[in-house]
Amino acid sequence: MGKARVQGIRLIENTGGGNTMTRSNKYPEFISKIELLKVILLSWVIILTPLTVWAAPTTTISLSPASSDGNNGWYRTRPSITLSSNEPGTTYWYYQPGYNYTYSAPITAADGQYIFYYYSVGTTGTESAKQQSFNVDSIPPALTQNIALNRPAYASSSVNSTRLPANAFDGDKSFTNPWNSGTSAPGWIYVDLQQNYDIAQMRLTVNQYPEGNTTHNIYSSQDGFNWTLVRTLDGYTFMLQNLLVDFSPPLSTVRYMRVETVSSPSWVSWNEIEVYAYPPGGVTLFGNVVDSSRIDLSWIASADSESGIDHYEIYNATNDSLIGSTTATTYSHTGLSIPTTYSYYVKAVDRAGNRSTASNTLRTTVLPCITQPWFFDFEPNNSLSDSVVGFPRNVVPSYHVYGYINNSSDEDWYQAYAYEGQTISLSIQVQATGTDVGWSGRKPSGAVLFQQTGLGTSILTSNAAYTVLPGEAGLYSLRIWNNNNNSTATRYNFNVSVTPQIDTLSPSNITGLTVTPLSSTEVDLTWAASSDNMGPVGYGICNLDTNIGFDTTTSTSIRLTNLSPGTTYHVGVAAADVAGNFSGPATVSFTPTSGDTTPPTGSLLINAGASTTNSTSVTLNLTCSDPSGCVQMCISNNNSCLPSAWEVYAPTKSWTLTAGDGIKTLYVWFRDSVGNANTAPFTDSILLQTTSGYSEPTPSGQNVNVTFTSIGVTITYDNVATACTTTVTPMVNPTHNPPNNFRFIRDGYFDISTDCMGFNNIAVTLPYNESYANGQEANLRLLHHSGAWQDCTISLNTTNNTITGRVTSLSPFGIGYGFGVAPTGANTNLIVLLALLAISAGIFIIRRSNSVRA
Hints:
By secondary structure, this protein is an all-beta fold. Helices cover 3% and strands 49% of the residues. The chain contains two helices and 63 strands. Strands 14, 15, 16, 17, 18, 19 and 20 form a seven-stranded antiparallel beta sheet that branches. A six-stranded antiparallel beta sheet has the order 52-55-56-62-58-59, with no helix packed on it. The longest helix has 13 residues, at 828-840. The chain starts with a strand and ends with a strand.
């Protein structure tokens, strides 16, 4: 019998009672008709149909909000996730394969960056897992530093050598590297912060499977043995959930923090535990008054373990208006008015758009420079003698000062004067960069009050205080230094206060202020010493026209330098004691005058005097000499200097020539310290030649001109029989030595060739640089080498700096001048004859010009 091709069969089994059960199968082979009849005899009803393919269920996801509601693609609101299947069955979801959760109700997405997987299992099969990427950050930026990061940690147990307690304090919040006890609750973990802090907040990232109700107790301790319960967390928790715990008021004087899991459906485990110290704001703000119109603000970088810090916003605390924003941790507020009190606070903003709570408020008064605090130096140059009289008193309520240890040998000194009974209080905070910073305090006698190292490594903050005893009044010094020679620049902040304030009387007024001129840019100021009822005084010197201080000193004289000649200055001097009381100012006016009216002399060389270059990038060598000192220069590609082009004088400079082959001339002007500048520029030229030769098509005809614009060469044929090509190659050196008593000038060599036919005479016009003629421009000659050098000159144009010769053939040419003896082989008769022929042919047009005719 034949065979039937069956794609699929449906078997309907008669089970009695009118009921049937349908089965489907796939038959890829041919089935004989007899075999089909056998199936029927076995009580099966066979219906031959195309096979029905049963599809797996399809799961859809919907989010609320439907798209990110923060910045940069981040959700600031933790979205609600709803999953729906198109047929009955069970829907599952998970973050990590193998840790599946059964979906029963909408899920609130966890914070972080991760992939969310989901699928359904139905009567028709299992769906392949789908995925949805999430960037969720619902938590504002954290405090200044996570003080638990990489600190020593201990736990009740660990499941293996890769799931240790340190994993919960390593900054990695993902579920791939947690601490895992390997046991069910109860279980505990704690961290040693290595010094005492006031704790404001904890953040715990859950590592838990399955999800469910948990209870966790949080403890604090000063010694690691006696623990105090500070918070209990009860609730439904799940993988990657962030638990935020605020302590208000902050936990005082804490070194150890412990988390004990009392009950949980899974093994005791944490992805990450973070601890943050007081103050509760996102940043701590410090400030330095720079001058009467500028205040510099600074803060240590905030932390955000989810989306990361995007920028900081600086606010006016008086009306909560935004002053500005920056991605740095410093900000200069300029254009200030005097006398005005300014109040600031700063907020950190993460990439999702969450804002931290406000920093501390910093209030600063900008005073006229005659009464500004002059008493400290940000970088006192590694010398106690350069340290200052005291600390600024215009930052309220505390003196927040910041500075930097910039290199391996850097150290900073500060001083404050204190009377008997006053207390000097100091606190310091050091950036963690690996640099070991030390600090120490000294009495006026030099005796060490305290000394501590390890700041910025094992310790980040420290405090010190001392009450002055009878007989110990004087300048107390603070030294901050690099203790381990680390080369990384490290910032420090410190606060200082000297209390109570017991000096309210001002020093005596300044008298005897005189001016002694020294030069056009310098004067000496001297005055009589001021006196004070309790202690020493310092002096501030102020430019009353700009309200900016010149300098401070503890002596009764000062030299003012870098003044502008011919400018009238109005200067004030005032005394101040260490308590910040100011005397009345003395004022004086003066006008520095200049005796130097001579401009600088100098020179310019391109590529050390090279004649040619194949690159537009060149190096300039510049020399400048002047009794008052060269301070500025102006370089140009043309014979003009724009006011904006002046720059600080330097002996070398990289420069880019203008594009296009040819002779390039640069110009430079110099200016001295009293304002004199040369009117005629110093120049140098160089031939830019990016190709070995320049070729131009030459048409047929009579009196044919071929112009090489980029190099300033013109060739004129009296006749060209057929179209051809003319080639000019500028050369660094001549092909043959010059004749006796003759000298070629720089950049005056050209090799000219052609394949043209039918000409009798050719006029060749070449450019030259008059600065290379050594004063012999009127005597320049054009030589043509045809077996020997021959003088072919017929005209010299000193206006356009070109020279023209006439020849009967093309070969090397050179421009130069003689020493009173005609060059060997000069074809004077030929030149005269050709000139007469050219005139008769109408080639030349005689005109008045600044030309010298041969």
